[in-house]
Design brief:
Elements: E1 3-12, H1 29-41, E2 48-49, E3 58-69, H2 77-82, E4 89-97, E5 109-118, E6 131-133, H3 139-147, E7 151-154, E8 169-180, E9 193-201, H4 208-220, H5 228-235, E10 250-256
Parallel strand pairs: 3-10, 5-6
Antiparallel strand pairs: 1-3, 1-4, 2-3, 5-9, 5-10, 7-8, 8-9
Helix pairs in contact: 3-4
Length: 257
């Protein structure tokens, strides 16, 4: 039997989970996937991911990897794993990866999307996957501020205090804010727009995207001028930026290699 690396594309609703990474006594995405694969191949297997998403964060394009010695054909892994997973996690694809493939180290970029429901009433069907803000947001001002985040910069001001990494320099390839009145579901809500913040980068600090979104919302509410973003970056301190956005609005859309 051949030793193989199997790369998965995984989608999950992270609302009821304590994030990706396995934690004793807590329900996590990694624990569920590792259990499912281990049951399938008959031995303990750990599934690793390209991005360790936080508690409450979802994914539509998480990349994951495990190593296995098994007679199971690669094309059969997708359905066999899905048969052993809860309904809020699904493997969208399974393929054999090269022997030297590094699911985290080989990442060239990731795209995170944050969804905001902007209107007077709570969106009861979408509330698990968005941040509800009643006050009307200035989307154009938010987008103007978002553009100032693009480039290779020191994003220490947007890292939580828990992030102890010495290097806080990252590259943001694109950052944009757009709105839609169609909503996330087919159920339209009167006088409500959905605001989407897309951030693509080569990597992110702990809670970096949520801190960016919280700061952009301050701009959208008129509490910060868009140009203030440059000063916040230059300050290199978390206290300079806005509050952190709640986790449920964040989704990992895809990972590229």
């Amino acid at each position: 039997m051949q030793h193989r690396k199997i790369k998965l594309t995984v989608r999950y609703d992270g609302y009821d989970y304590h994030g990706w990474q396995t934690q004793p006594g807590k329900r996590t995405i990694q624990a569920e996937l590792s259990r499912a694969v281990s049951e399938l191949v008959g031995r303990m297997v750990t599934v690793h991911a390209a991005s360790r998403t936080d508690a409450g964060v979802s994914a539509l394009g998480q990349s994951a990897l495990f190593e296995v010695i098994s007679p199971i054909p690669t094309e059969n892994f997708k359905q066999a794993i899905n048969d052993r997973l809860p309904d809020d996690i699904v493997v969208a694809s399974a393929e054999q990866a090269p022997k030297d493939f590094d699911v985290m180290g080989d990442v060239s970029s990731k795209l995170y999307r944050y969804a905001i429901c902007n209107g007077p009433d709570r969106p009861v069907l979408d509330i698990r996957h968005c941040w509800h803000i009643a006050k009307k947001l200035d989307v154009a001002a938010m987008d103007k501020a978002a553009c100032l985040l693009v480039g290779r910069k020191d994003f220490k001001s947007f890292a939580t205090a828990k992030d102890k990494r010495e290097n806080s320099v990252r590259t943001i390839f694109s950052c944009s804010v757009r709105s839609s009145y169609e909503g996330q579901t087919r159920y339209a809500i009167r006088d409500t727009q959905y605001v989407y913040v897309d951030v693509e980068g080569d990597g992110f600090l702990y809670n970096m995207v949520r801190n960016i979104v919280g700061t952009l919302v301050e701009v959208g509410m008129g509490r910060l001028a868009p140009e203030k973003i440059t000063e916040i970056i230059d300050a290199k301190t978390r206290t300079a930026a806005g509050p952190i956005a709640p986790p449920q609005g964040l989704c990992l859309m895809w990972v590229r290699y």
